[in-house]
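Async update (no meeting this week)

Hi team, since we skipped the sync, here's where things stand on the single-chain job. The sequence we agreed to prioritize is pasted below, unchanged from the tracker. I ran it this morning and attached the output directly underneath so nobody has to dig for it. Comments welcome in thread, and please keep replies under the output.
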Amino acid sequence: MSGGVVLVLLETSGQLFGLDYQMLFDVAISAINIIILLLFFVAPITIIIILIRKLIKYLDAKTKYYENNVNNTNHSLDDRQD
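Output:
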């Protein structure tokens, strides 16, 4: 078969894999609905969680940076005269 044509042989009752066409259509539509559900609800929630985790890591790094710089430097305002 070099032409790439694939034939699906039906049973004599007109069913494919023992199921009628309406049942196969319903299964296909249900599968498409589940995929759409995953794309619209699970993917954005996952992206939001990843972004929140990155924000928390960034804020932790900034906090450590400022804690180290404030504790290690001379406070120039402490030696001012009134």
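Quick observations from my side:
Residues 21-72 form the longest helix (52 residues).
Helices lie at 21-72.
Reply here if anything looks off.
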